[in-house]
UniProtKB/TrEMBL annotation:
Belongs to the HIBADH-related family. 3-hydroxyisobutyrate dehydrogenase subfamily. Residues 198-324 form the 3-hydroxyisobutyrate dehydrogenase-like NAD-binding domain. It comes from Cyprinus carpio carpio. Keywords: Branched-chain amino acid catabolism, Mitochondrion, NAD, Oxidoreductase, Transit peptide. This is 3-hydroxyisobutyrate dehydrogenase.
Amino acid sequence: MISQVHLTRLKLYKDKRIKHYSDLGISIRSMASKTQVGFVGLGNMGNPMAKNLIKHGYPVIASDVFPESCKELQELGAQILDSPADVADKADRIITMLPSSPNVIDVYTGPNGILKKVKKGSLLIDSSTIDPAVSKDMAVAAEKLGAVFMDAPVSGGVGAATSGKLTFMVGGPEEEFNAAKELLSCMGANVVYCGQVGTGQAAKICNNMLLAIGMIGTAETMNLGIRLGLDPKLLAKILNMSSGRCWSSDTYNPVPGVMEGVPSANNYQGGFGTTLMAKDLGLAQYTATNTKTPVPLGSLAHQIYRMMCARGYASKDFSSVFQFLREEEGQ
């Protein structure tokens, strides 16, 4: 059965607002048109993501709560508007990249939110990492207005966002996946369909819990090796050709001087903030409690990152756990 949203899109197609569709009941949205795309949230991740859309020829209409975040994008030709509602009034494909669940709720359902002026048939893609339950709530609210909401959180960090090599984990109606993939492929190397709304968030939460555990393990291992007299570059080399190898050791090493182009080489500036990692681990704890899933290492990782936030590491990259452990040994 074709949903009311699809019937709306079919009408839009007939009215020439959508130029192409394929397979009855599948997405009716154009897979090739370079019509304008809305983007809300131009932080460390959103800014380079929006730039990649522009590089691929999409006119971008953007908004951010901090006007200074918009300047660079405006210089590249993006149109900057005052609110998410204004963006929804101009574009029927919108991507959001926001820090937390409350931000997403406000941007979509607040007094100046997207759903205040959303057009029927619009495709709304949220790449924030939030509670899966919030994604489901937003999807229900959007559907009531004739729009489609999909969750599409990312993995890869600022570096991958800049190079267009993010991994997107997508949840939502399967018939809309190709329409979402058209845009997401401009910003990522991998776009994976996970299932219905909320499953993208579930995959991201699981990934980040493992990432935190792996980073702490790598930091502990490197610190122990250094205290035992090993050269950190040599130790990293050995780990990366052995069974202990992981992303935190070979791509994002937390020890200053081991790798170039990573936050540990820049006093842990940039990258993925400790506050955000603590937030994601909090989501993992919440969902683990709700599903009665034992996550002892995830719980310990959450405690460590919360402690780091209280000890002055909140704005530093999450790999600064190495520095945190080094300072702890002196107490």
